[in-house]
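Researcher: Good morning. I'm working through a list of sequences from a screen, and I'd like to move beyond sequence-only analysis. For each chain I'm collecting a predicted structure so we can compare shapes side by side. This is the next one on the list. No need for commentary yet; just the structure.
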Amino acid sequence: MSAQTAVVKVIRSADRHHWRNEWLDSRQSFPATGNFDLAANAHGLLMVHNEDFVDPGEGFDTHQHRDTEIVTWVLEGSVVHQDSAGNSGIINPGLAQRMTAGIGILHSEKNSAGRYEKPTLHVVQMWLPPDESGLTPGYQEMDVAGELARNSLVTVASGIRRHRNDTAITLHNKYAAFHVARLEPGSTVTVPDAPFGHVFIARGQVEFEGSGPLEQGDAVRLTRIGGQSITAVEPSEVLVWEMHGEFA
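Model: Good morning. Structure tokens for this chain:
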């Protein structure tokens, strides 16, 4: 494929990499479990895009990350977060969270529900590289639930300069932005025009201009093209990455 070729590639939910253990059902847009070369499967700057279902009382024990920007977006339930930089909190739907691993950070993340309670945690976690290695570990969160009620594309996280006045949390990558739209039936948003894009249907069903209907778990990878309309057929939530660079 030449650098100038425009590509729209639909990835159906059933075609994602699937990994499961006793308490985790992970559906991965890019193979992540056991993959030590995430860059090889990256699209633009996006290395990991995992949709995880975590049983009550379960989760990831303390583990380490380095030189990674990690964005967590909860769809149902809540995550208890703790890290070695002293940050802790509970992440609910509508609360944007970013963790900068930098020179190295230890953290744990678990379903806040007790072992015999409900609900199952439904969460999407996304990884991308920072602009530079060796950053000081950091953490940021902000509630954007109010803005998501507008039936429009909301900039949740960004390092792109033009989004700085309207973004909720900051990414340490000046080429990437993460947007979310919660849409009522008939509402429409437009995919940002960028060299690389990634659209994920987190819930509901939409009509994607030029590609037809998309359902929960489906995704679209865009290269050298944008501007398509996304129209909700039923109440829907759409996650959109706008990327003006690729993994080096």
